[in-house]
Design goal:
alpha/beta; ten-stranded mixed β-sheet; two-stranded antiparallel ribbon; 12 helices; binds nicotinamide-adenine-dinucleotide
Length: about 350
């Protein structure tokens, strides 16, 4: 029987990379009935809303989605559709493997890290108070009264909630992931020295959870600023990282940089009986419609999706084909060539064609 999967093309380069991934997944022979729905800018233009109900309904029904990136305007405009989907479906765990592929140029080789990012709270909770609004001023006065600390009246305020419940859930997820995937160590990344009641709670909870796994998985804790330096200097010292939402977002891009860039890094957002697979990268609007960008991150997200639906054989075959094309370095996009203006670079579609040809050999 065919797997039912929601397909969200997304904005910018989304439709191109999603189409490439869809074709590669179909070429494995796995039967999929796609339910294509739109969200983001295209949905805004067509239906007057960025996240139509049909999108969440479809994902709730199928339980699995492959999603392209969706634009979020900076500082103004609508809130992130990506964050809204994660929150509405309680996709609490964001899993972002960063693994070196042979043939992909990078300052490092043999990187094999997994970032597990808490996806439901922290500064992404979307609780914000705008500068100058009367409720903001009221809040500032209340906080000043309670804490005896001064906040300038012309401030904006973003709230950072971190709960014991969500911290425990994500750290347990990280340890279970480590166990299932034969990993040896989980590192909790935090800034508990400064934010004692939020990151402090995250860390304290992580220490408690770690005790339950002490006989099987090592546990370590690192302050986030130190972590960025250590990842650049000695990334091979790390294995699974578990982080609150904001640090997870930032460290994922750093880890993408370790393995050759955003064009390579895949991801999954996991909840209870529901999962949305998407690349780490965004919609890179300046490349929209140019058939230029790298489809690897989206195809790798598709490989994670195939494993999730228990099509491991197809996932293995697609990964082998992708690795072969990457290691040959011939039919790859500009970002994987020695020089960005290399005339032998192929387009998004042509790189997918090469992977499909390889699959059929
Ligand atoms: P971005 O990831 O879209 O692009 C940054 C740069 O990375 C690009 O200019 C390009 O040089 C490179 N890049 C990205 N994807 C690539 C690919 N597949 N192949 C080759 N190079 C690639 O980040 P941005 O410019 O900061 O964000 C653009 C928009 O995407 C914003 O609106 C942002 O909010 C949104 N965004 C969405 C998601 C998501 O949907 N999950 C994630 C991140 C950013």
């Amino acid at each position: 029987m065919a797997h039912k999967i929601t397909l969200i093309p997304g904005d910018g380069i989304g439709p191109e990379v999603v189409e490439a991934a869809k074709r590669c997944i179909e070429a494995t022979g796995v039967k999929i009935q796609w339910d294509e729905v739109i969200a983001g800018q295209s949905a805004q233009e067509k239906f007057g809303e960025i996240l139509p109900k049909s999108v969440l309904d479809s994902i709730k029904k199928t339980g699995v989605a492959l999603k392209g990136p969706i634009i979020t305007p900076i500082a103004t405009g609508f809130r992130s559709v990506n964050v809204a989907i994660r929150q509405a479906l309680d996709l609490y765990a964001c899993v972002r493997p960063a693994k070196s592929y042979p043939g992909v140029k990078s300052l490092y080789s043999n990187i094999d890290l997994v970032v597990i990012r808490e996806n439901s709270e922290d500064l992404y909770a979307g609780i914000e108070f705008e500068k100058g609004k009367s409720e903001t001023k009221k809040l500032i006065k209340k906080i000043s009264k309670l804490t005896k600390k001064r906040i300038r009246l012309d401030s904006g305020i973003s709230v950072k909630p971190i709960s014991k419940f969500a911290s425990e859930r994500i750290v347990r997820f990280a340890f279970e992931y480590a166990l299932k995937n034969n990993r040896k160590k989980v590192t909790c990344v935090h800034k508990a020295n400064i934010m004692k009641f939020t990151d402090g709670l995250f860390l304290k909870t992580a220490r408690e959870v770690a005790k339950r796994y002490a006989d099987k998985i090592n546990f370590e804790e690192t302050i986030v600023d130190n972590m960025t330096m250590q990842l650049v200097q000695k990334p091979h010292n790390f294995d699974v990282l578990v982080l609150p939402n904001l640090y997870g977002d930032i460290i994922s891009d750093l880890c993408a940089g370790l393995i050759g860039g955003l064009g390579i890094a895949p991801g999954a957002n996991i909840g209870r009986n529901i999962a949305v697979f998407e690349a780490v990268h965004g919609s890179a609007p300046k490349y929209k419609g140019l058939n230029k960008v790298n489809p690897t991150a989206m195809i790798s997200s598709g490989i994670l999706m195939l494993r999730h639906i228990k099509e491991d054989d197809a996932a293995d075959r697609l990964e082998t084909a992708l690795k072969k094309v990457l290691s040959e370095g011939r039919s790859v996009t500009y970002d994987l060539k020695p020089y960005r203006d290399d005339p032998s670079a192929v387009g998004t579609k042509e790189m997918a064609d090469a992977i499909i040809d390889q699959l059929k050999k």
